[in-house]
Design goal:
Helix content: over 70%
Number of strands: 0
Number of domains: 1
Distance between the termini: 39 Å
Radius of gyration: 19 Å
Largest sheet: none
Protein name: DMT family transporter
Membrane topology: Multi-pass membrane protein
Structural class: mainly alpha
GO cellular component, one term: plasma membrane
Shape: globular
Subcellular location: Cell membrane
Order of helices and strands: HHHHHHHHHHHHH
Number of helices: 13
Mean pLDDT: 81
Low-confidence stretches: none
Pfam families: EamA
Length: about 300
């Protein structure tokens, strides 16, 4: 798969995730956030299991233990990200959640330094300032307006950053992207259902009321989109993958406006532009600087 095709695959994943924000938000009118996580990933496991079995039949060798451990860490990062995002959606809007989740694009290079000892490009630091200025504008130009749900969503972005970096590391080295998806889904399903049994009320009628959202989130926003992410990241870098995946924020805002009649203040749109400008700077800035240096060298 070429890098442009991989990026298109990641863009499709971002679009599906954007629609998934709607399902995540409306499902909690009927069931608790942790139960929704457990059920959506249980559906994702059932959906993806035949594909994982087919991949295993074609594999030349079994999964290495080191890769399997990596799959487990990816699943844990995904679970904590989903929990933070679901609880955040109880307290903030779909639009805000979509935009703030996109901050993981800025966080990915920072976590790459902390986890992989890969120093980020110097252009990352002004991008971080620009992104958090965007958050301030998105809140209406008043930091007090940021509520608990917004801060939970920012923490969610941190978990997504770890997940994106780890997927980039293990999707290529293992050569088993579908198995990776199945393991991370199984971990989220198991942890979600166990925690839901302990902490939330489980009523069959409520589950049936949220069944359309559970099926959409399980099959498309989880089974399809997360697998597209894993497959796409085998052929591109983590920062480049993050820029295409972050389009979920744009799609979330569009779908929220169409389906939920959500609106953000006029200054919030400028905040969204700032956040996406930071994302673009992190992704495109280094390449532009390299071209400028190359041009200057030729002129000399």
């Amino acid at each position: 798969m070429s890098r442009p095709v991989a990026n298109l695959v990641l863009l499709l994943a971002g679009a599906i995730w954007g629609m998934g924000f709607i399902a995540q938000s409306t499902a909690m009118d009927a069931i608790g956030p942790i139960l929704f996580i457990g059920l959506r990933f249980l559906v994702a496991c059932i959906f993806i299991a035949p594909f994982a079995w087919f991949e295993a039949r074609r594999a030349a060798e079994p999964i290495r233990k080191s890769d399997l451990r990596g799959f487990v860490f990816i699943g844990l990062a995904l679970f904590f990200g989903m929990v933070l995002q679901q609880f955040g959606l109880l307290l903030t809007t779909v639009t805000n959640s979509g935009f703030l989740t996109g901050l993981y694009v800025v966080m990915v290079p920072i976590l790459s330094l902390l986890l992989l000892r890969q120093a980020p490009h110097p252009i990352v630091w002004p991008a971080v300032v620009l992104a958090f200025t965007g958050i301030w504008l998105l809140s209406g130009g008043d930091l007090v307006a940021l509520n608990t749900g917004d801060f939970l969503t920012i923490a969610c972005a941190l978990a997504w950053s770890a997940q994106v970096i780890l997927v980039g590391r293990f999707a290529s080295s293992s050569g088993r992207p579908i198995a990776l998806s199945l393991v991370q889904f199984a971990i989220c399903a198991a942890l979600g259902l166990v925690c839901a049994i302990a902490l939330e009320d489980i009523v069959l009628a409520d589950i049936m009321a949220a069944l359309p959202e559970i099926l959409f989130a399980g099959i498309f926003a989880s089974g399809v989109a997360f697998t597209l992410q894993v497959v796409g990241q085998r052929y591109t870098t983590a920062p480049q993958a993050a820029i295409f995946l972050s389009t979920e924020a744009l799609f979330a805002a569009v779908f929220a406006a169409i389906l939920l009649a959500e609106r953000i203040p006029p200054i919030g749109y400028l905040g969204g532009v700032f956040i996406f400008s930071a994302i673009l700077i992190v992704e495109a800035g280094p390449a532009i600087l390299r071209r400028n240096r190359s041009s200057m060298a030729k002129d000399i």
